[in-house]
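As a next step, we paired sequence with structure tokens, yielding the entry below.
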Amino acid sequence: MSWVGSSSVRSRRGPPSATSTASSSSRRSVSFSWLARLLMERGELHSRHGRVLIGISLVEDLAAVVLMVVTPELGSLETKRLLGLGAALGKSALILVPFWYLSSKVFPPLMTRAAQTRSSELFLLFALAVGLGTAAATQAMGLSVALGAFLAGLLINESDYAHEILARLLSLRDAFVALFFVTVGVLIDVRRVPSNLPLLTTMVALVVVGKLVLRAAIVWALGQPLSTSLLVGTGLAQIGEFSFVLVQVARSAGHISQDVYQTTLAASLITILLNAALFRAMESWVGRLGLGGRRHRKELAVERAGLRDHVVLCGFGRVGSAIGEALESFGIRYLVIELDPDVIKGLAARGVPCLFGDAGHGRILEHAGVDRAALAVVTVPEADRARLAVQGLRRLRPDLPILARFHDAASRDGLLRAGADELIQPETEAAATLIRHALRRLELPQERVLAYLGRFRGAMERAQANAGAAEALPAVEEVVMGSGPLADQTLGEARVRERFGVTVVAITKARGPVLHNPTADTVLRTGDRVRVFGLPDQLASFRREAGG
């Protein structure tokens, strides 16, 4: 469909086949960064349609890398063209040989040396040098700078420090993405848009309608549910960042005209802006569509409307399904909110009240009868989705008891601020179960085991309650030694760590050098400046003893 539609945008500057192929290729790629950000903001990155969308967009980005190499050589089947195409592919293959050697033998030890300097600035500069150097090398060989940047990303990904580098580059990525779109906006010649309005309308229609229908049909034909297929087709109905690079390469090679180039840039921005609104509308429509037969959907709708004093179960994975089974055993009615269409289909077949959608959406929660519920249990594993669900529940029902699961201190604090009443950490319960089984195998008295488990759970709850505050409070402080009890004692004799809980980072001697990570036999003298790390109350206690 993309190639057929491209026949309407052919240019006199290149053969029809080259123009059509270049134009359709530039519209085939989607914006991976835009899709990933949209799915993360909506908490749908790990949903069925989210996984399919990310997989397809990654493959298309990889295909775009190949197209950047072959696009300049597109054209008629002349010997010169074929030789040029072979040379371009040969250069790309030639790069991969030293690239493999560098990624496995050279780069990892260099990255380790940079990390061992413990200089965050040098570490970041080294990563940037690798990226820019690889891009410059590919350009020197007559290939695309974008191809070199892509290979640099693969090179860095092979190191043990990939996650640290990624964390440091995220802020740069966001800044450069914004700058990239600003540059695209500057490149658009607004004066050409009115004269090319029919072409722009055709191109936007081909991308939004054509790609949506075609991609949804392909995904559905491959066995995915209709709801997933529609959401995937909608998410792919756009033109992404790699398309900007491809259309630039095609224009430089003379395959497309300036009008087609300008129109493609404008269509890219329009489709990306339309995509977010279209995706939300499609998800809302799919959620209302339902997955069972019409009569069965009506019966479930009537049953949902009649629910009262029920449990709203947000998420029906391994944890949620276990809770649902327990509620059924006690004859307690519950309603499930889930994003997996297969789970919804199975629940509907069993006659369990259920809703397809995100529990963070207020309208979904209203349909779930939150105003009549007795309890809400949030079991979704993603911290952002869980927090949004708790916020929505608390907004609709300030007095509703809400239970939620969490995995770390940061997500625990977020859920508490959102309004959760009780939080459960699966890892803590797993540890308690393992402790119980281990102690039972050792044939210890049952009452002692149960008493210990009670103390263990209480200690874990207190530690979790203080985790957020504890993480925010530690600091480094410089204390000037006075003539107090600690003067003229060694660190070992003063037992600084045991008595005060602080760590001595460095000591600037009153008459002498700076001692970093001082040993236990270092003597504390009056006038020494001691840098210690600890909590405020620990620092205050040490300061009182050291100051005299």
